[in-house]
Write a structure and sequence with these properties.
Strand order of the largest sheet: 1-2-6-5-4-3-7-8-9
Mean pLDDT: 91
Number of domains: 3
Order of helices and strands: HHHHHEHEEHEHEHEHEHEHEHHHEHHEE
CATH architecture of the largest domain: 3-Layer(aba) Sandwich
Number of strands: 12
Oligomer: single chain
Distance between the termini: 48 Å
Number of helices: 17
Largest sheet: 9 strands, mixed
Low-confidence stretches: 293-300
Strand content: 5-15%
CATH topology of the largest domain: Rossmann fold
Structural class: alpha/beta
CATH class of the largest domain: Alpha Beta
């Protein structure tokens, strides 16, 4: 058995984890030697219960079953033995032994920036997440997030809409996407980056797993941007992990009378950098390995089935947003027809309505 397979086996054993594996490696030297060590010797390092779990792995074919499941789905895995395992993640305290991968992790995905925030995003928060994600992607950075509803979803979608790459880190297994509403989003991400999990593929979501997921999100990112979140939100826990890992933490300020502003404001008080433009982040980050020219977006093709009014309006819209009056002037259409046409385009999810009653393309 090679080191890669041995790490894979160890990652699947319940109750072991990276810290115990690091302790065992310091004694036995390599993962293969851990698996073949006498139970009596293992006990001296990790105690009787863990030693028994390790010693009986040969009698259980969990790793063979897991490998078979991954092959059937076209998925892969990375371990500490793989050169493709994210180098920055490898440097943190207790990095995951294994990452199961749906899609592809590329060397040029790093440096990456994590964008996280509340599931209950306000229109302001969504706009900020889109604007700053857009700037990061156009600068050549890969976007990392956690596939949650709200800000995470906005960050993943905006990165892909701009032709960029994005990595989603789960708190469940690859075969049990959480939240279910983002199954289709996960499938799209796998084609434009990767969906990653440090858990066996059939692992169901559990609240105890999400702090570890957050640790991984920040661990593989050079910087972390927080857009909205209360004082005890998951995004705040991710920010704390990022600070402990020595990452640059950025926060978007918001109205002082909103619950979602409390988290970012606390972070700013604790030393996070207040962000107003993407330049506020880029100046603190290492240069991307993928040039902005490569990351730049191809102009999106118009949807093929637009009728006359729909096509007229879609042509004049941009990503920034126009009011109904502005659209009416640009298209020479009555405001009432503009309003009804915008509603149809919005229902088809081709455009979005922004704060202040402006409308913009989604791509």
């Amino acid at each position: 058995m090679d080191a890669r397979t041995a790490y894979f086996v160890l990652a699947l054993l319940p109750g072991i984890g990276p810290r115990r594996i690091q302790a065992l490696l310091s004694v036995f030297g390599g993962p293969e030697k851990i698996l073949t060590a006498p139970e009596s010797e293992l006990r001296k390092v990790v105690g009787a219960a863990c030693a028994t779990v390790i010693a009986r792995w040969k009698r259980e074919s969990a790793h063979e079953e897991e490998e078979s499941l991954l092959r059937q789905r076209g998925w892969n895995y990375l371990t500490w033995a793989d050169d493709a395992y994210p180098a920055l993640l490898r440097q943190i305290h207790s990095p995951p032994l294994m990452l199961e991968v749906w899609g592809e992790v590329r060397p040029e995905d790093f440096p990456a920036v994590a964008v996280v925030g509340t599931r209950r995003a306000t229109p302001y928060g969504r706009d900020c997440a889109r604007l700053l994600t857009r700037g990061l992607v156009e600068s050549g950075y890969t976007i990392v997030s956690g596939l949650a509803l709200g800000i995470d979803t906005v960050a993943h979608e905006e990165a892909m809409a701009l032709g960029g790459r994005t990595l989603a880190v789960l708190g469940s297994g690859l075969a049990d996407i959480y939240p279910k509403e983002n199954q289709a989003l996960a499938e799209r991400i796998a084609g434009r980056g990767a969906v990653l999990s440090q858990y066996p593929c059939r692992t169901q979501p559990d609240a105890r797993q999400f702090p570890q997921r957050n640790h991984t999100v920040s661990g593989m990112s050079h910087g972390l941007l927080v857009v909205e979140g209360n004082a005890r939100s998951g995004s705040m826990l991710t920010a704390v992990a990022a600070m402990e890992q020595g990452r640059q933490v950025f926060a978007v300020p918001g109205p002082i009378n909103r619950q979602g502003s409390i988290g970012p404001h606390r972070l700013i008080q604790d030393g996070a950098k207040l962000v107003m433009t993407v330049e506020d982040m880029v100046c603190e980050l290492p240069a991307p390995t993928r040039s902005p020219a490569v990351a730049a977006i191809e102009p999106a093709a118009f949807p093929p089935d637009l009728n006359g009014d729909e096509l007229k309006i879609y042509e004049v819209l941009d990503l920034e947003g126009l009011s109904i009056d502005s659209i009416a002037k640009k298209t020479d259409l009555p405001s009432a027809r503009v309003s009804s046409t915008l509603l149809r385009l919005e229902i088809r999810q081709l455009i979005r309505k922004n704060p202040g009653m402006t409308f913009s393309r989604r791509h």
